């Protein structure tokens, strides 16, 4: 039986239909920045198809629990043991009940483990229960990250494996994955690559626009259109949607999320006793405190390595000691000097700018272990911060100045991948050095594209962090108002002496 649900309207006003039977066989990927209307699109799909196919929604923010009010979806709270979740998922698959797995209130690692347990149980169902199920995963980059984050490696592999099974092997078991993500660059490629249908919404970063254009088979020059899409408008392609890219305006929904976009509202009228109103507690507040719902304490987790380290040897004979066990304890100053030396070794490689921070971080940890450095390792966030400072080229004398402290504070306003670029410009402005060339800026960002470097400068100027102008000869000058200084004129086309291409030319 062929069933087509109406997702909205095409540009000419005709209905934009989505073939549910084809979707079950070919899967769907939705991408768009926060506020582009991804959740609205998923809600429209779920509402329109609820009477035709069983639905399972992995909901990290608790936005889709309102489907239960009108469409009867069972709400499953994620703060349960893995055994409970597995049993519930098994019965849901067996009895064909649509549900929403609400992971609201859990930390990221608990969300990943709960979702993985639920998805793996759906996947491992007996052959007799391989009924068609539409499995919708919102914020899929949380459950299938492209690189390791702050969660444990075991949790990451468990969650990524469940998402890979859903998208790669789920079709024969009746599981049709519909995944939504804010950024394609953050989603594991082997998960995204299995989707044959695409709905691409508004996005601004050039790397995401380029990937979206590639997936839709569009010319990269057309990628700029994704910046201009309105909220709730997507470009669709795929066997269940259209044979060529077509813009779709998503239709209205009948249910609403518990959370919504903030809207302006008038301020309340000023009262005379504001201080008494704020600083004097209301007696009713104390009565309500015991009634507040508290989440249960997180389930205890067994650290296998810690248990093994506390285990008692089988023999009373002393264990052989390695040569390094007698190494004297290193002072804090010596350890910091060694850490700085290792960091300098890694970043001195001209190719280091084109490697991901996670890969550099792993190399950094291995080198620390090779030097037998004791103590807890540097966190990934601190490594990124120090790597950005090192890539800026700042000298020791400048780091002690008040202007550089201001620049570091301002760098917190940009994302991690832009910190090195901003600090490089700030250092050049403080020293009144020539403005870095496009090639040098591109290397600090980790790309070979000079065009992208110019876009980065435009983005920083749009954010009000820098001001770009040129002298009479056309050389570029970058000023930073908060520092009260600007760079000397520099040629945008000047070669980067540290780049591999420059070394090859020599």
TrEMBL record:
Q: Which residues form the AAA+ ATPase domain?
A: 24-213
Q: Does the keyword Transmembrane apply?
A: no
Question: What is the name listed in the Swiss-Prot or TrEMBL entry for this protein?
Answer: ATP-binding protein
Keywords attached to this Swiss-Prot or TrEMBL record, sorted alphabetically, are: ATP-binding, Nucleotide-binding
Taxonomy of origin reads: Bacteria, Pseudomonadati, Pseudomonadota, Alphaproteobacteria, Hyphomicrobiales
**What would be one Pfam family of this protein?**
DUF87
* ATP-binding listed as a keyword: yes
Q: Where is this region: Disordered?
A: 310-335, 480-506
Q: Which organism is it from?
A: Ahrensia marina
Where is composition skewed (Low complexity) in this entry? 488-506
| Composition bias, Basic and acidic residues | 321-335
Where would you find the membrane-spanning parts of this chain? none
């Amino acid at each position: 039986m062929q069933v087509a649900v109406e997702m909205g309207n095409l540009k000419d006003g005709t209905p934009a239909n989505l073939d549910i039977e084809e979707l079950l066989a070919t899967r769907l990927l939705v991408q768009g920045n926060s506020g582009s209307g991804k959740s609205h699109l998923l809600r429209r799909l779920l509402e329109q198809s609820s009477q035709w196919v069983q639905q399972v929604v992995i909901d990290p923010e608790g936005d889709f629990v309102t489907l239960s009010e009108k469409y009867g979806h069972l709400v499953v709270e994620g703060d349960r043991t893995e055994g409970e979740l597995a049993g519930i998922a098994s019965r849901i698959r067996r009895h064909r009940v649509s549900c929403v797995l609400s992971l609201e209130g859990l930390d990221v690692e608990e969300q990943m483990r709960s979702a993985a347990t639920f998805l793996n149980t759906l996947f491992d169902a007996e052959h007799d229960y391989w009924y068609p199920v539409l499995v919708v995963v919102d914020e899929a980059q949380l459950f299938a990250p492209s690189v390791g984050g702050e969660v444990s490696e075991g949790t990451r592999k468990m969650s990524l494996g469940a998402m890979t099974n859903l998208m790669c092997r789920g079709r024969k078991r009746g599981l049709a994955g519909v995944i939504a993500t804010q950024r394609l660059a953050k989603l594991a490629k082997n998960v995204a690559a299995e989707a044959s249908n695409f709905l691409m919404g508004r996005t601004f970063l050039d790397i995401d626009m380029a990937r979206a254009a590639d997936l839709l088979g569009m010319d990269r020059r057309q990628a700029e259109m994704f910046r201009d899409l309105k909220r709730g408008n997507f470009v669709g392609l795929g066997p269940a949607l259209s044979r060529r890219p077509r813009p779709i305006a998503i239709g209205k929904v009948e249910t609403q999320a518990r959370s919504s976009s903030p809207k302006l509202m008038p301020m309340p009228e000023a009262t005379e006793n504001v201080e008494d109103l704020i600083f004097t507690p209301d007696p009713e507040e104390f009565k309500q405190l015991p009634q507040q719902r508290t989440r249960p304490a997180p389930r205890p987790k067994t650290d296998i390595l810690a248990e093994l380290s506390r285990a008692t040897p089988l023999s009373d004979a002393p264990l052989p000691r390695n040569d390094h066990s007698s190494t004297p304890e290193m002072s804090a100053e010596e350890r910091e000097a060694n850490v700085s030396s290792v960091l300098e070794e890694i970043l001195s490689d001209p190719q280091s700018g084109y490697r991901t921070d996670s890969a550099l971080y792993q190399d950094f940890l291995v080198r620390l272990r090779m030097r037998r450095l004791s103590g807890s390792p540097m966190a990934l966030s601190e490594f990124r911060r120090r790597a950005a400072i090192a890539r800026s080229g700042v000298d020791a004398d400048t780091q002690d100045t008040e202007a550089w402290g201001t620049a570091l504070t301002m760098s917190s306003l940009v994302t991690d991948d832009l910190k090195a670029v901003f600090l490089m410009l700030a250092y050049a402005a403080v020293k009144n050095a020539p403005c870095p060339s496009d090639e040098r800026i591109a290397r600090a960002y980790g790309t070979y594209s000079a065009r992208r470097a110019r876009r980065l400068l435009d983005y920083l100027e749009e954010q009000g962090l820098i001001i770009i102008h040129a002298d009479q000869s056309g050389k570029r000058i970058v000023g930073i108002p908060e520092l009260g200084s600007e760079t000397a004129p520099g040629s945008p086309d000047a070669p980067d002496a540290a780049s591999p291409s420059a070394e090859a030319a020599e």
